Amino acid sequence: MSSTPVPGSAGPVVVGTDGSEHARRAVLFALREAQMRGVAVRAVRAYGSGHADPSDLGTPSWPRTSGALPTHLHDVVAREVTDSVEELRRQVGEPFVEVEVRCERGRPAEVLLDASQGAGLLVVGTRGAGVWGRLAFGSTSTEVVRHAHVPVVVVPPEAPAAPA
User: Fold this and answer.
1) What angle do CA 41, 159, 28 make, to 5 degrees?
2) Which residues make beta-bridge pairs with 105?
3) Which neighbouring-strand residues pair with 15?
4) SS3 track for 46-111
5) Which of 93, 91, 70, 89 is nearest to 81 (CA)?
6) How many Cα atoms are found within 13 Å in the side-chain-facing hemisphere of 116?
7) Taking the model in full, what pTM does it have?
8) For each of the chain's 164 residues, which pLDDT tens digit applies?
9) Which end of the chain, N or C, is surrounded by fewer C-beta atoms within 10 Å?
10) Is residue 137 within 8 Å of residue 154, measured between CB atoms?
11) Which residues contact 12 (CB under 8 A, 6 or more apart)?
């Protein structure tokens, strides 16, 4: 891996993260890519969309009619993302990449597309399950690929080990 920045890649690498193993793989990819490009990473987490979106698993779905989320929810989500990304940043090693964490309420694809304004690259993971997982992306990655205004990398799930 070269430490020479890639020309024409001044915008940050934006990566979606939700704490899943698939998202961790995407964050690792984003950190390594940002190192090569000599740019920062913007780690983005959507929460509380109120939709039954598989990428929003593990996050309470707050009713839209209430108008307000508990004030601490944003802080809790932001701390979880920051801790996870920092662990992965240390794993990747030097040169350390600057990381901005954004946590916003909304649908994951919309939040990611908004956060990718001015980015050089958008990175998402995919849950992909079995044969269909190799043929189709999840709902968030599909929407991001269809509507992104920057290049997108969809990091596939780790291939299962071959039987011995």
Assistant:
1) 15
2) 47
3) 43, 123
4) EECCCCCCHHHCCCCCCCHHHCCCCHHHHHHHHHHHHHHHHHHHHHHCCCCCCEEEEEEECCHHHH
5) 89
6) 24
7) 0.76
8) 445 544 445 899 999 998 888 899 999 999 999 999 999 999 999 987 654 443 333 444 333 334 444 567 778 888 888 889 999 999 999 988 999 999 998 999 999 999 999 999 999 998 754 444 444 556 888 899 999 999 999 998 875 555 66
9) C
10) yes
11) 34, 39, 40, 41, 42, 100, 118, 119, 120
Please state, in angstroms and rounded to a whole number, the distance separating the CA atoms of residues 89 and 94. 9
| 13-155, CATH topology level | Rossmann fold (3.40.50)
Q: Domain locations in the chain? A: 13-155
